[in-house]
Design goal:
Layout (H helix, E strand, L loop, with lengths): L11 H4 L4 H11 L11 E5 L2 E4 L4 E4 L2 H4 L8 H11 L14 H12 L3 E5 L2 H20 L7 E5 L8 H5 L4 H4 L9 E4 L4 H7 L4 E6 L15 H11 L3 E5 L23 E4 L11 E5 L1 H4 L15 H15 L2 H18 L6 E6 L4 E5 L6 H10 L2 E2 L1 E3 L3 E4 L7 H15 L1
Parallel strand pairs: 3-13, 5-6, 5-7, 7-8, 8-9
Antiparallel strand pairs: 1-2, 2-3, 4-10, 9-10, 11-12, 12-15, 14-15
Helix pairs in contact: 4-12, 5-12, 13-15
Length: 415
């Protein structure tokens, strides 16, 4: 017998058309504050463009903090999702599903690490990596029970859970959320000597972002990542690279660590892995590391669901072509050249790699937030970070002309 569910009528007030201003007001009362959104209400999107409720178009130069590396609604990703919606969407890992193994195999081949632990959000991947590193420390390295430490970098951003904010040095992220999880040490970023000095017999892992995104696209000196690799190998410490924002084509290579030809012991991916459609994250590592997890010791109801695996496999297929990495490299020069011409004209400095840039705005012309708001009025979406910095991370499908038009708008609002 087949059960056919009745289709309920949608609640009237939730479907009645409302203006952007009405929806912003409703968000302000119906939703808890966590982000501080710019005043634009997106109703539709395609490629590098979004459209608001009133039909105004904006060039998306943020791309969901790099979750939309392939643009909004990439046809191949939408097609993969639609196909999977007609088959099966969720099994939980109480059972196997026919999509997950293929996803893990293709992802392993793409990045060169043999096992995958599928999760959903970036924060979950980070949490999972910390658990795996601790277990590895006790079972493989021989660290005394409950003594394992993980070294992280000042200025880090790895997510918002209680353990992750425990090792943040951003008071806005931490304030009021204690007590905090012990077992972390913070060292200055891009400082190998400080890292070496912090490593001792309790150190399970070093967890860093190869480029610090939220801190303002901070790119470490040449040789730093190679140095971290050599140091961690020499001291029997796991190197965990959080590439949740820097990975999957953004910087012109599949992974940002590839700029220094480095392979970490554990790699964290998220954001773009879900193609901007579903949350998909993953921890990748060798069997000697991820093999410490045994049945029942970790889990996630949605982690590795067939819809996520189908979209993730389609994302990997896009990256296998090399097209998006090449675009990020080539168009990165357009972005870099344009930003160089703004230095001294309202921009005090910038850092860029591939299609990713942190731009420091002269406080005399406005805060990062004010510049972002002025850009909304110019039809360009970016986001500020840490007071006077704005972040540019357009979809890798953006064109050179679109980047130039965004930079022209930036020049106008700085002028
Ligand atoms: C480097 C890095 N790690 C982890 C996260 C957390 O990801 P999520 O918001 O999906 O939990 C982010 C989010 O911005 C990030 O940039």
């Amino acid at each position: 017998m087949t059960y056919t569910a009745p289709v309920p009528a949608p609640a009237a007030e939730a479907t009645a058309p409302r203006t952007s201003a009405e929806l912003i007001r409703a968000d302000g009362t119906a939703l808890a504050h966590n982000y501080h959104p710019l005043p634009v209400v997106v109703a539709r999107a395609e490629g590098a463009w979004v459209e608001d409720v009133e039909g105004r178009r904006y060039l998306d130069m943020l791309a969901g903090y790099s979750a939309l590396n392939f643009g909004h609604r990439h046809p191949a990703l939408i097609e993969a999702a639609k196909r999977q919606l007609d088959e099966v969407t969720l099994t939980s890992r109480a059972f196997h599903n026919d999509r997950l193994a293929g996803f893990a195999e293709s992802l392993s081949a793409l990045v060169g690490l043999e096992m995958t632990l599928p999760m959903n959000t970036g924060a979950e991947a980070v949490e999972s990596a910390v658990k795996v590193a601790r277990k590895w420390a006790y079972e493989v390295k021989g660290v005394a029970e409950d003594r394992a430490t993980v070294i992280v970098a000042a200025g880090n951003f790895h997510g918002r859970t209680t353990t992750i904010v425990s090792f943040s040095d951003d008071e806005v992220a931490r304030g009021g959320f204690g007590p905090f999880t012990p077992g972390f040490r913070i060292v200055p970023y891009d400082d190998l000597a400080a890292l070496e000095a912090a490593i001792d017999e309790t150190t399970a892992a070093v967890l860093i972002e190869p480029i610090q995104g939220e801190a303002g696209v901070i790119i470490p000196s040449d040789g730093y990542l190679r140095g971290v690799r050599e140091l961690t190998r020499r001291t029997n410490v796991l190197f965990i690279a959080d590439e949740i924002q820097s990975g999957l084509g953004r910087t012109g290579t599949t992974l940002a660590v590839q700029h220094e030809n480095v392979l970490p012991d554990m790699l964290l991916l998220g954001k773009a892995l879900g193609g901007g459609i579903v949350p998909v994250s993953a921890v990748l590592a060798g069997r000697d590391v991820l093999g410490v997890l045994r049945p029942g010791e970790h889990g996630s109801t949605f982690g590795g669901n067939p819809l996520a695996a189908a979209v993730g496999s389609a994302v990997v297929a896009l990256l296998e072509t090399g097209e998006y990495q090449r675009r990020a490299r080539e168009l990165g020069t357009v972005l870099d050249t344009g930003l160089a011409s703004l230095v001294g004209k309202g921009v005090t400095g910038y850092r860029s790699r591939g299609l990713w840039a942190g731009v420091d705005v002269d406080p005399a012309v406005g805060t990062g937030r004010e510049i972002s708001e002025r850009l909304v009025r110019e039809g360009v979406l970016v986001k500020d970070t840490h007071g006077s910095t704005i972040r540019l991370a357009p979809p890798l499908t953006v064109t050179g002309e679109e980047i130039e038009s965004a930079l022209d708008a930036l020049a106008r609002v700085l002028g």
